[in-house]
Amino acid sequence: MQYTNAIEGKNIVKKYKSFTLDVPEVKIPAGFATALIGENGAGKTTLLNILAGIRLDYKGELEYFGEYKDADRDNNPVVKENMGYTGTDNYFLPHWTVEQVKNLSKLLFDNFDEKKFMDIYDELAISSNGSYDGKKKVSELSDGTKTKLALASVLSRDTKLLIMDEPASPLDPLMRDKLCELIRNYLSSGENKSVFFSTHNISDMETVTDYAIIMEHGKIVEEGFVEDLKEKYILVKGEASDAKAAKEVLFTMTESKYGFEGICLSKDLDKLAGMDVVTETASLFQISVAVMKKNSRVK
Amino acid sequence: MVNCYKIFVNKKIVLIKGLLAITMLVLPLILATGVPMGILVGALMVASFSILIELIMDFFTFGGIAAKKEKVMEYCRSSIKGPRVVEKGLTGDVVVKFLKMFLIVIISYVSTTLYLNEKITAISILFMLSLVFAALVLIYGGLMITRRFCKTFSIHVIVIYLVMAIGTGLFVPLFYFYICGALIGMITFTLVSGCLSGLFGYLLVREGVNGFKSGYYDI
Predict the structure, then answer these.
(1) pTM
(2) Among the four residues A55, A267, B36, B181, which has the most C-beta atoms within 10 Å?
(3) Residue A125, phi-psi category: left (phi > 0), alpha (psi -120 to 50), beta (remainder)
């Protein structure tokens, strides 16, 4: 598949006292939705913050939209004007009102469209009473509504790339579905528009995920287009009598007295010959959990 | 600058501060008739109350910054204009504080002078200017400390006590120069406090901007 990269990073290193983010190479394909998956503390937020340019204490090289370097991001308005970033807890000041967030957006971004903001405000039902409530403080909004407000702020701009940290987590199932719709609409609204988001809600976000990056302990342990990953990892189910033998072959496995279920690398599928097993296409959730299990320190 | 400033302030708090300022202006009129040198004492009281109000209310008006949230304003950091917007907002705050203090002291002075049919003299004008500048030094200096170190309101209040105590020490020589008619001393005080208020205002803005920029690094 031919594609360019919205962001390309090399040798990204960020050291904390007890944790090191060490990513020799990261590529966010342009024109697709990329999910960043990993355990708590895997380094997802750190990586997102570095790529979004809101964290500068790292080593490494970054290239945006195939032409701009890190220094351009911090000096040339084009890069950040074309990127929308939504964070989690520390995104807005708690005492800001919705009106102040709107006015701040106008000051911060030349491409902020106030009318679009109001449309998205209505579309996402940010106000509980259906009408615009500009006096409402951020601190008075629920976590889900804060996320909706952040989404309204970034989606009302004409950008090429959205970077979102855990956008689905505070949202209810209906809003998660809406989020997927918003991402789909964003991707189809222009050529090479890209979305990069971290998530723990893999199942909910799978329908919109084209490319997945799985992180563990500050490193990328797996990545690829979802369709390719589904060819690489196969879901295998079998009888309990074959569990012991299958365990030697399977990538990860869970067993019960009725049988076993696990993820097998497609290249190892031949090794299951002779066993009474059925194979199915694994979901991104099952693949992600398998990869995380394989690399996790959780017993 | 005005738009940036408006982003960071709480309108309710601004309104409360405005109402308090207007209420305070009655004070010199009451003092003017009953206290010797009532005009000056009144102006001094107004300045002192203004310092107190500015320092207390800052915890709520710039609450996010007082609570060290300037380091984590990720939305601002996601824009290349973020540091500039924060700087303009903080500069706006410094300018508004200056204008407010200047207007309050001058209005109180002029109104009580007219009320008592007194003359506006050169030394009393210098006294008022010195009062404005000294009050600004205390406000800007106090805010540098509170915004940097005071996460909780109780610690914020302790710092305000200290600032007010220093203020008392500052106002004593001011009165002394006025009573003695020491024009040179008064001019020197005005110039020094004027320069210091400008410097402290600049440092207060830098303090806020540096706090914001430090959010790009380990927090």
Answers:
(1) 0.86
(2) A55
(3) left
